[in-house]
Every structure is written in C-alpha cells, then in structure tokens.
C-alpha cells in the first residue's frame, strides 16, 4: 500500500512527539519548555530519579514493568483496558512531568479521602479507578501484578518526597474561572486551529500500525463519562499546561476553558456507575457545573454514551 499524505503527516508528528518526549526526559534545563524558569517542578526542588537509576534486582523488575504498563497500557495491562489510551497520555513524560498529575506528586498523598467514593482510598484503589474510568476498562483486583508494578513505579519515583504534603507541580493546575462562560463555538475554533491536526477532525485521534500515535479525545475509544478528565476544570488545567503538545502554556485561559468545553461537549462511553437514567446518574455523580453529563450542548443532551 502506498502511504497516504495523512500517514506521512502522522509520521512527521510522531517524530515531533518523540523528540518532545526526549527533550522532557533530558535533565538539562536548557531543554525544558519555556515556562521552566517558573516551573513548579523546579520551585519544589524535586526531580524524579532518572530511568537509568532503576535497580537491576527484583524490585527493579517491578518498577520497570510498572513503567511499561504506564506508557503502553493496552499492551502490558491487557484485559484491563477498554480504549486506545495509555496512562502516559494524560500523565506526560511517563508520569514525571510537573503540572501533568505526576506520579511523584500523587504517591505521597495516599491514603486519602475521596469524595468520589466517600472513603479513604489506598493508592492501589486510586489506580483501580483509573482503569475503570480513564481507561474505560476493568479494575485489576487488589494484589494483581499490574497494580503491584504500578505501585512500585510510583513509590520508586517518589523517594525523598515528604509524605502527606502536596508538592508544587502536583495534579493539574487550577485555572481561575474564565471571564466568559465556556462556549462551544469558540471552543470549536480553538480546536480546529490548534488541536485537530493531531487529534483528528472528529477527535478520534490517530493510530499507526495498531498503536495510538495521537490519543482520541472523545468517542468510543476515549475516556468514559466517569473519568476525571470529563470535568471541565481538570481538562482546562491539563490543556492549558500541556497542549498543544510541546507548546504548553501558550493558550489563553479562556481558550483552554472553551476548548475543554468543546471536547467534553461530545459523547463518550457511558459512566460505568450509570443508574438507568441520565438524570439520576447526573444527580448522583455529576452534580457540578464542571460536568456536561446530562447537559444539552450544541442541541444534544449528553450522557447517552457510545458503544465500543
Ligand atoms: C484521560 C486522561 C487520563 C488517563 C488515560 C489516565 N489518567 Fe490518571 N488522572 C487523570 C485525571 C484528570 C486525574 C485527576 C482526577 C481527579 O482529580 O479527579 C488523574 C489522577 C490520577 C492519579 C492521582 C493523582 C493525584 O495527584 O492524586 C493517579 C495516581 C493516576 N491518575 C494514575 C493513572 C494511571 C496509573 C493510569 C493508567 C492506568 C491513568 N492515571 C490514566 C487523567 C487520566
Ligand atoms: C502536535 C500534536 C498535538 C497537538 C497539536 C495537540 N495535541 Fe493533545 N496530545 C498529543 C499527544 C501526543 C498526546 C499524548 C501525550 C503523551 O502520551 O505523551 C496528547 C494528549 C492530549 C490529551 C489527553 C489524552 C486524551 O486523549 O484525552 C488531551 C485531553 C489533549 N491532548 C487535548 C488537546 C487539545 C485540546 C489540543 C488543542 C488545544 C491538543 N491536544 C493539541 C498531541 C497533540
């Protein structure tokens, strides 16, 4: 088969993306994105250890497996993943990047109470939730090799952090509420201008040789309605700091909110906690202006779900 121009463009962007990842992984400050001078990672003084320092003993094997699961989840945690995403798609640079919910910002904060399920969660339970919602899959049972390896990776990466103190750069940045209420049409223009080239005109992403080159933003292969990224505040913060890839912090806050609204104003797989009615499910789990589940956007009521 002759490669189509789109495949060529895809390949070019793959190269650009890899290059970007290599730059993020490099310790040299000169290679850091423009925001590095004020980057919370630097302000916190915490640098996660280099991959090259993963030990070569049994513990090291678990850490290395955890890293593989994190960056190629569908392959290394097969059976627990129901979409085309990997953990790394939302936790950039293999879970190391500040302001991209890095693992070193998360691990020291557990066990923690979560209003999402009304009890104190262990880190392993937190990971289970990622599989159910962000990965639209199944939670690996507690003690499963997949969870043990991910815990090992996060524990190793967080060595030297204080327990229970949120380091700067943890989570996604919290943007101030936008001056104008987020808007679908404005979000669509931002999407066409700054996102569609990589993520596709219909947010479907791009695959090459059965692997995800650009992850889908909505539709059957993306995160489901129960995921954290479904919240406009999470999505706007992630997008502002990290997108367009390699040009983080170039969008205005308003653009980030608008494009988050446009992205989450589309259908995606049903919330696995679905109660039988969109209204009831909204009341139980999505009762916030930051969720568009059950809202009418662009003439359609959201929350029907789409099948894989
Ligand atoms: C679609 C994007 C997306 C994907 C894919 C994803 N996550 Fe997340 N993750 C998020 C968001 C958004 C949050 C913050 C959620 C919240 O505050 O409710 C989060 C939070 C977390 C946290 C807690 C962070 C903290 O600071 O408390 C951990 C740990 C985590 N994810 C691990 C994973 C793992 C492991 C995978 C793969 C199995 C994964 N995530 C896949 C978006 C994603
Ligand atoms: C140059 C290509 C490129 C552009 C342009 C781009 N992205 Fe991304 N985006 C990516 C890649 C690659 C990832 C996964 C990052 C990784 O795995 O390291 C990603 C991840 C994401 C994710 C998390 C994963 C998912 O599928 O939900 C969201 C949300 C996202 N991008 C939104 C946007 C938005 C909104 C824009 C426009 C403002 C945008 N992106 C522009 C390449 C791009």
UniProtKB/TrEMBL annotation:
Keywords, in A-Z order: Heme, Iron, Metal-binding, Signal
This protein's name: Cytochrome c
Signal sequence, start to end: 1-22
Compositional bias (Low complexity): 29-40
Domain Cytochrome c positions: 182-267
Origin: domain of life: Bacteria
Database matches in InterPro entries: Cyt_c-like_dom, Cyt_c-like_dom_sf, Cytochrome_c-type_DH
Organism in which the protein naturally occurs: Dyella acidisoli
Chain segments carrying region Disordered: 29-57
């Amino acid at each position: 088969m002759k490669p189509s121009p789109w495949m060529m463009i895809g390949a070019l962007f793959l190269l650009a993306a890899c290059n970007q990842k290599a730059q993020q992984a490099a310790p040299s400050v000169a290679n850091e994105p423009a925001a590095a001078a004020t980057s919370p990672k630097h302000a916190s003084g915490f640098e996660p250890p280099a991959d090259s320092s993963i030990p070569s003993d049994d513990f090291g094997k678990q850490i290395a497996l955890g890293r593989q699961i994190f960056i190629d989840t569908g392959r290394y945690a097969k059976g627990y993943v129901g979409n085309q995403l990997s953990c790394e798609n939302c936790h950039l640079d293999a879970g190391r990047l500040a302001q991209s919910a890095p693992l070193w910002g998360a691990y020291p904060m557990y066990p923690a109470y979560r209003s999402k399920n009304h009890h104190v969660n262990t880190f392993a339970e937190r990971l289970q939730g990622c599989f159910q919602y962000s990965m639209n899959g199944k939670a690996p049972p507690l003690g499963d090799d997949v969870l043990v390896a991910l815990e090992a990776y996060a524990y190793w990466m967080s060595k030297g952090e204080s327990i229970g103190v949120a380091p700067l750069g943890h989570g996604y940045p919290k943007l101030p509420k936008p001056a104008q209420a987020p808007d679908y049409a404005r979000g669509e223009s931002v999407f066409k201008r700054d996102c569609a080239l990589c993520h596709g005109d219909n947010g479907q992403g791009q695959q090459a040789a059965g692997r995800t080159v650009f992850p889908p933003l909505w539709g059957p292969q993306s995160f489901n309605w129960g995921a954290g990224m479904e919240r406009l505040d999470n999505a706007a913060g992630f997008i502002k700091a990290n997108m367009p890839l390699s040009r983080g912090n170039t969008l205005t806050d308003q653009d980030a909110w608008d494009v988050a609204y446009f992205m989450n104003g589309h259908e995606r797989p049903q919330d696995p906690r679905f109660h039988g009615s969109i209204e009831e499910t909204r009341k139980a789990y999505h009762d916030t202006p930051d969720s568009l589940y059950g809202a009418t956007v662009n003439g359609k009521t959201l929350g029907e779900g789409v099948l894989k």
